């Protein structure tokens, strides 16, 4: 474990709290009095208001991992109009950073910690037990969800044999502004994510009134995601299956209208938990051109080809298939939420990796039957579970496009030589590449955060 003290009054109040103090409904709970202490929520209503206010915790997911991924490309004119930090991340510049992905995630952590530090002061009784449990479970879930996002963007791929030594994330486990900054190991980081999610799952209800609030299925889904990137396929299978048992609904794309600007309705039956990234113009529909090889990989009977994409006047293609409703030309946030379709892909991949090829393909067919024109999907004949795995990973790429899953997938799959991918960007007469397992897959922690906290920075060549 690497530890470095820092002044967390400075870190929280100068970096995080300015984001929070603009939220008028929560201001009274998060104001900074003259003695720099937090005014804390004192009732369950206060705490639920913090979790719900303007869905802030659901709309500041990290976005640079999608900017840096290979689902799309930019023309030179669009690239030149970007903010310098976004340009640097698009081209994988060695010094690329982006402050708001870090502060956004730790804003979520702070909200969760304020609740967790104070909820035990509210007596739990027969009348409020369910609500008390739900609020505590939600705070744990949001904290773990944010930790997972930070690890996915600012750390290298999880490797069991080196996890105890590899640099992980800053595990903020209280709202105490005087606590030192600690950059934990990867093993410690993922152990905390799993512990928080399991405790959240034990407290959360089976269903919620709003998809911006987590329930048991959401906690199971995040556990499945976490174990998948850790390479623990047995556990990922268990939790994906548990999630699907509670939330099996999958959209039938045959029932959608591809002529609409946004064919996939927001908060639809397939969504388990709704989140979106912040927005950047690089990902706007009128800027991001879908990778042509990726677009051509969709078969003609695959309804995703018309549901997910529209053809531009120059023959290129733009993405319109967000699960967050209409994707207008200027809209640049990505849906990152949990869906039952994603869980079917996790389950299918894990079955294949565990040598159960036939079951893996049967699980995949459950999804593909609802993505292809009715009666047209035929399960390919494969000779082994490994061949089934390749097929499943290809479908995962096509299903989860612009969902902020690709960066994590590239990192974890690059550890396997058969799936390693070299990324290439062409900007004018310049060609940029990102090799498998490059240190740039662990994005730089913002320099302002390093300056305040003195925590170790990610390495560069």
Written description of the protein model:
- Helix content is 44%, strand content 8%.
- With 461 residues, the protein is mostly helical.
- It has a domain at 2-247 and 411-453: Serine Threonine Protein Phosphatase 5, Tetratricopeptide repeat.
- Helix 11 packs antiparallel against helix 14 and helix 15 (357-368) packs parallel to helix 16.
- The longest helix is centred in the first third of the chain and has 26 residues, at 129-154.
- The two termini are 23 Å apart.
- The model is unreliable at 1-37 (pLDDT under 50).
Give descriptors for this structure.
single chain, 461 residues, mainly alpha, Serine Threonine Protein Phosphatase 5, Tetratricopeptide repeat, 3-stranded antiparallel beta sheet, 44% helix, disordered N terminus
Write a concise synopsis of the structure shown.
The chain is mainly α and 461 residues long. The chain has 18 helices and eleven strands. A hairpin with a 2-residue loop joins β10 (423-427) and β11 (430-434).
Distance between the termini: 23 Å
CATH fold naming of one domain: Serine Threonine Protein Phosphatase 5, Tetratricopeptide repeat
Largest sheet, spatial ordering of strands: 1-4-3
Which structural class do the helices and strands define?
A: mainly alpha
Shape: globular
Largest sheet: 3 strands, antiparallel
Helical content stands at 40-55%
Radius of gyration: 22 Å
Low-confidence sequence ranges: 1-37
β-strand number: 11
Element pattern in H and E: EHHHHEHHHHEEHHHEEHHEEEHHHHEEH
The percentage of residues in β strands lies in: 5-15%
Mean pLDDT: 91
What CATH first level of one domain would be assigned? Mainly Alpha
